[in-house]
Amino acid sequence: MSEPYILVLYYSKYGTTRQMARAIAYGIELAGIKARIRTVPEVSSVTTAIVPSIPLEGELYATMDDLQDCAGLALGSPTRFGNMAAPMKYFWDQSATIWLSGRLQGKPACVFTASGSMHGGQETTLITMMIPLLHHGMLLLGLPYSEVALSRTTRGGTPYGATHVSGADHDQAVSSDEKALCVAQGKRIALLVQQLAVTTN
Q: How far lies 64's CA from each of 30, 91, 110, 133, 200, in Å?
């Protein structure tokens, strides 16, 4: 049997969501679970457009096997008018076969996002990412206020999941508090995966 892993699945246009994904993956591995980081390709308005199956840089594109075989999921997308970005939505729209099989039921999941503006719809974006996870029967977890960085951060951080405001030019770095929240979120989902494995074995 292969080693269990938590899938850290993200889409990032300017790199901020990627930074957050990597911090969450670091937290997962600190807690003793393997993290598998994957992204999704751009969506083209021209249906005949074809991109290489392996991206020129960064993480590999996620497959449905990556998704259905994970022990848990951390899902991230930048905000698009208070919603997840189209490439991530497109990926989930292809997951009906997994939904029919129930392969994600009972598995833990969490969400994270970044926006260009302070009121860019971070919390609604997190909720839009939660909706397909609920349909798949996943167990959602957020960030408790026992994480002190949640009360200190001024550019992100919600009880629904880690967030960051990158600014209109996407030049605002992820702060130490926000990075700490990403790491904490990774640890939290990893610990839940471990606890569930003990109770089901």
A: 26, 9, 18, 14, 24
Domains of the chain (ranges; CATH) run: 5-200 (3.40.50.360)
Q: Are strands 72-78 and 108-115 parallel, antiparallel or unpaired?
A: parallel
Residue 101 exposed, middle or buried by CB count within 10 Å (0-12, 13-18, 19+):
exposed
Is it the case that residue 79 has pLDDT exceeding 70? yes
Task: Tell which residue, 157, 161, 169, has the closest CA to residue 110.
Answer: 161
Mean pLDDT over 165-190 rounds to 93
Q: 113 by DSSP, 3-state: which? A: strand
Of all helices (H) and strands (E), which one includes residue 23?
helix 16-30
- Straight-line distance from the first to the last Cα atom of the chain, in angstroms, rounded to the nearest whole number: 14
CA distance 82 to 88: 14
Inter-residue contact 158 to 109 (CB < 8 Å): no
Confidence check: pLDDT of 106 > 90? yes
Q: Give the pLDDT band (50/70/90) at residue 56.
A: confident
pLDDT averaged over the chain?
Answer: 93
Classify the C-alpha dihedral 94-99-105-111 as positive or negative: positive
What pLDDT digit, counting tens, does each position of 148-175 carry?
999 998 888 899 999 999 888 888 889 9
- Among candidates 185, 179, 201, which has minimal Cα distance to 72? 185
Contacts of residue 141, Cβ cutoff 8 Å, sequence gap at least 6: 108, 109, 110, 188, 189, 192
